[in-house]
């Protein structure tokens, strides 16, 4: 298990528990965190699970792979710390992870 | 605008996996099908959204890719020679005096059929609107999501946004016509075919187009007439003269015209019974992701089952006097003749 914090653009914080092996997107959806739409159900095919990884965590979550980079082209206001949350797999190392939600999904 | 007029037994709206398999089940009962899809090829979501991803829950196929399943379905329905109308959106279904249906598309095709099968999945694929504030005010005046007539871009300051094939193709094709062309993409890598990317870069070197790395952050211009756009890039913001904008942000599924056909809907899905998968209009059936009934699962295998039962009911409408005998493809020589295996 890992604790994940989502921060909305209005600074509301959502602290959720995420199961190891699942994804950050699944943690958001299971816990009803608003602003993660995940239309394609985690297949890296919709770009509606976009998040900004807190700079302190960027090294741990790593860089997006080529397919995710391609899909990020369709997201809104993409920044260097943008990721698709369905492509971040939960491990113990991510316990305490903080991600910010964008103003809107594509 | 009746450019084409076609008569057939069944019109299937949508060439996704369920529409394709319906051709097989209807074909075994000697019903001839025409399929219409807004996309330029068959396969629906499987081909458009996840052609290379594996599917693990198709009975009898432990693992098959989205495109692989579509290719298999096309091979399976080949004996029935279905006719495809691609790049057309069905806009209207109308009942004729004798109880058949007239189906019309946005390109002027009209088909006459005794049965209509809606296999429209998540709806029609339509270009995504990029999330730029106020963009809707410029749509169809200065902002276009596809090119219908190249002439509309002549002598304009054109800006194309995106890194895929559509963005690159239109940058190259419209460059000779437009007054100026700027391509905008958020990163220096492109998804488009390497050949088009090389062509684009050589035009850029010769100063015939501009490439700007970044994302469009604002649009300027009065009454829907675009004058310039702001691009936020790695080195800050720049304003670029722009009177025509072509953003390519992929496709999304919208219910579209299905909602206007007078059928009973529940949360944007067409309600059907579970015996025939018929809608509230006798003769119009709905199968696959587009339909709703208690217990519905949006799985390909459910759509296949629905296709088989729907076909039996469709047969009774098209040939009310025919006796339908239940047969197995394994053992029925009459079915095997239809399939061309004996
Ligand atoms: C990423 C992803 C992974 C998936 N994985 C699986 C899986 O593992 N197993 C599984 O069973 N399912 C899976 N699915 C779901 C599966 O793809 C759908 O259930 C299936 O595609 C539904 O088929 P369909 O034929 O009903 O509709 P679709 O595949 O949606 O096709 C409908 C077609 O109708 C066309 N259309 C709609 N309206 C019109 C109109 N008015 N005029 C003309 N054309 C029109 C559309 O353009 C589209 O091509 C997945 C879906 C996604 C997105
Ligand atoms: S859920 Fe669709 S890309 Fe992540």
Automatic annotation (TrEMBL), chain A:
The lineage of its organism: Bacteria, Pseudomonadati, Pseudomonadota, Alphaproteobacteria, Hyphomicrobiales. Belongs to the adrenodoxin/putidaredoxin family. Pfam families: Fer2 (PF00111). Residues 2-105 form the 2Fe-2S ferredoxin-type domain. CDD domains: fer2. It comes from Faunimonas pinastri. The keyword Coiled coil does not apply. Keywords: 2Fe-2S, Iron, Iron-sulfur, Metal-binding. This is Ferredoxin, 2Fe-2S. GO terms for molecular function: 2 iron, 2 sulfur cluster binding; electron transfer activity; metal ion binding.
UniProtKB/TrEMBL annotation, chain B:
FAD binds at residues 18, 37, 45, 50, 90, 125, 289, 330. Residues 9-294 form the FAD/NAD(P)-binding domain. Its EC number is 1.18.1.2. GO terms for molecular function: ferredoxin-NADP+ reductase activity; flavin adenine dinucleotide binding; NADP binding. Its cofactor is FAD. It is an enzyme of class 1 (oxidoreductase). Transmembrane segments: none annotated. InterPro entries: FAD/NAD-bd_sf (IPR036188), FAD/NAD-binding_dom (IPR023753), Fd--NADP_Rdtase_type_2 (IPR022890), Ferredoxin-NADP_redctase_2 (IPR050097). The keyword NADP applies. Gene3D superfamilies: FAD/NAD(P)-binding domain. It catalyses: 2 reduced [2Fe-2S]-[ferredoxin] + NADP(+) + H(+) = 2 oxidized [2Fe-2S]-[ferredoxin] + NADPH. Keywords: FAD, Flavoprotein, NADP, Oxidoreductase. Binds 1 FAD per subunit. Pfam families: Pyr_redox_2. It comes from the Bacteria. The keyword Flavoprotein applies. Belongs to the ferredoxin--NADP reductase type 2 family. Homodimer. This is Ferredoxin--NADP reductase.
């Amino acid at each position: 298990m890992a604790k994940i914090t989502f921060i909305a653009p209005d600074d509301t914080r959502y602290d959720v528990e995420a199961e190891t092996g699942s994804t950050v997107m699944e943690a958001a959806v299971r816990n009803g965190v608003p602003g993660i739409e995940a239309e394609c159900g985690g297949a890296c095919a919709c770009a509606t699970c976009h998040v900004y990884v807190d700079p302190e965590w960027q090294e741990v979550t790593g860089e997006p792979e080529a397919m995710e980079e391609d899909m990020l082209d369709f997201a809104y206001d993409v920044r260097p710390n943008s990721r698709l949350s369905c492509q971040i797999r939960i491990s113990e190392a991510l316990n305490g992870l903080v991600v910010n939600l964008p103003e809107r999904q594509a | 605008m009746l450019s084409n007029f076609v008569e057939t037994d069944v019109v299937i709206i949508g060439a996704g996996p369920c529409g394709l398999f319906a051709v097989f089940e209807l074909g075994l009962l000697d019903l001839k099908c025409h399929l219409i899809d807004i996309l330029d090829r068959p396969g629906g979501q499987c081909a458009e959204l996840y052609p290379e991803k594996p599917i693990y829950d198709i009975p009898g196929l432990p693992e098959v890719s989205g495109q692989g399943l579509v290719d298999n379905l096309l091979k399976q329905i080949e004996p029935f020679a279905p006719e495809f109308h691609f790049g057309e959106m069905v806009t209207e279904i109308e009942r004729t005096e004798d109880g058949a249906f007239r189906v019309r598309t946005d390109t002027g095709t009209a088909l006459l059929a005794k049965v209509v099968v809606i296999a429209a999945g998540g709806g029609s694929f339509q270009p995504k609107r990029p999330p730029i504030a106020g963009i809707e005010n410029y749509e169809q005046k200065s902002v276009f999501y596809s090119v219908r007539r190249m002439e509309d871009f002549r002598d304009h300051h054109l800006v194309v946004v995106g890194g895929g094939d559509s963005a690159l193709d239109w940058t190259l094709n419209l460059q000779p016509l437009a007054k100026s062309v700027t391509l905008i993409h958020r990163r220096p890598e492109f998804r488009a075919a390497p050949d088009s990317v090389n062509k684009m870069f050589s035009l850029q070197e010769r100063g015939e187009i501009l490439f700007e790395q970044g994302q469009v952050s604002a649009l300027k211009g009065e009454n829907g007439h675009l004058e310039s756009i702001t691009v936020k890039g790695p080195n800050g913001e720049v304003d670029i003269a722009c009177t025509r904008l072509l953003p390519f942000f992929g496709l999304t599924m919208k219910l579209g015209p299905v909602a206007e056909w007078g059928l009973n809907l529940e949360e944007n899905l067409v309600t059907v019974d579970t015996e025939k998968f018929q809608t509230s209009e006798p003769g119009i059936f709905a199968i696959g992701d587009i339909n709703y009934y208690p217990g519905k699962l949006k799985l390909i295998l459910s759509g296949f089952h629905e296709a088989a039962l729907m076909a039996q009911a469709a047969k009774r409408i098209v040939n009310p006097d025919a006796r339908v005998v239940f047969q197995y493809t394994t053992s029925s020589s009459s079915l095997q003749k239809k399939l061309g295996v004996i």
